[in-house]
Design brief:
The chain has 306 residues and is α+β, with helices and mostly antiparallel strands. 44% of the residues lie in helices and 18% in strands.
Length: 306
């Protein structure tokens, strides 16, 4: 099953024009990547398909191989290392985030049926076959371009959470049953990253006063401007990992009018420039050895010394 999913993604990434899958993050490189301070705004699952991922957060460090799931709780900030495998010279993974409304509907429908004492607080787990099967269906659906079907998207996400619940994998992923204000704000911003967001726009979407929202965000140690920038940079990271779009196009797509400003903030956040990230997706140039010239070819003769 996992090989079929890999073949599907290989075909997607080899397309001359790659349209992002939108509802799924595709992370791909041919050279090692190290990404600092990657913010996780909503509960997220990474499925590693090729190579190795190393994640460090909260003094914990885990190594994930092909077929492993990384179960990432909202509110965490990670050091991520993506390492291509030696044989395939490639790293490939999928990332799926669960927006607050989806999690709330899942908990309202199935939360009472789950024995939370049995849900393990795991950062790493082997991917169940049923999870991989649903992800394959989801990738195929996204490739068809029908990602605006919000009902189907929500049902697929709840199905994936149900699989994780059945295998007792929700302990860490959904450790906070209540969505934070930061999560809610980030989810609204993510709906249209190119928009010139103002806090009043988000307040209307969340039906909360501006003073209350600022106070709640301050209580969580963040602010509207911080969340806006983080959402844009994370979206830019995802586009650079999946598509061949030039940096200027990526910057504009996530709401930056200046490419240089995007590059500056991207490097400050993740520890490398967008161009360096794009270069890591290219194969390492093979070193062609210089031809060895023999004495006969050079016309020189070997003489005895002394």
């Amino acid at each position: 099953m996992i090989h079929e999913l890999i073949e599907l993604l290989d075909g997607h990434l080899s397309s001359p024009v790659i349209n992002p899958l939108r509802q799924i993050g595709v992370f791909h490189c041919r050279q090692p990547q190290q990404l600092h301070a990657v913010p996780i705004h909503q509960p997220s699952i990474v499925l590693v398909l090729k190579g190795t991922k190393r994640i460090t957060f909260s003094s914990r460090c885990e190594v994930f191989k092909a077929g492993d799931l990384a179960l990432l709780p909202a509110g965490s900030e990670l050091l991520m290392e993506n390492i291509p495998c030696c044989r395939q010279q490639e790293y490939l993974a999928l990332c799926l985030g669960f927006a607050p409304p989806t999690v709330e509907r899942f908990l309202a429908s199935y939360g009472a049926q789950l024995n939370w004492n049995e849900q393990q607080e795991l950062l790493k787990a082997a991917a169940p076959q049923s999870f991989i099967q649903i992800m394959q269906q989801r990738v195929a659906w996204c490739m068809q371009g029908d990602t605006e079907n919000h009902i189907l998207n929500d049902l697929q996400q709840q199905e994936l959470l149900s699989v994780c619940g059945h295998h007792r994998l929700l302990g860490l992923l959904l450790q906070s049953k209540q969505s934070s204000w930061g999560q809610r704000v980030s989810a609204v911003i993510a709906l249209d990253l190119g928009r010139k967001w103002k806090i009043a726009d988000v307040c209307r979407a969340l039906t909360v006063s501006e003073s209350a929202l600022r106070r709640n965000l301050h209580g969580e140690g963040t602010s509207f401007s911080d969340l806006l920038e983080q959402a844009r940079l994370v979206a830019g990271l995802a586009l650079l990992q999946e598509t061949a779009q030039p940096v200027s196009q990526v910057a504009a797509a996530v709401g930056y009018q200046s490419q240089s400003r995007f590059t500056e903030r991207f490097k400050q956040r993740f520890g490398l420039t967008p161009r360096q990230l794009k270069q890591s997706r290219q194969s390492v140039p093979s070193q062609v050895p210089e031809p060895v010239t023999t004495l006969a070819e050079s016309g020189e003769t070997l003489t005895e010394s002394g």
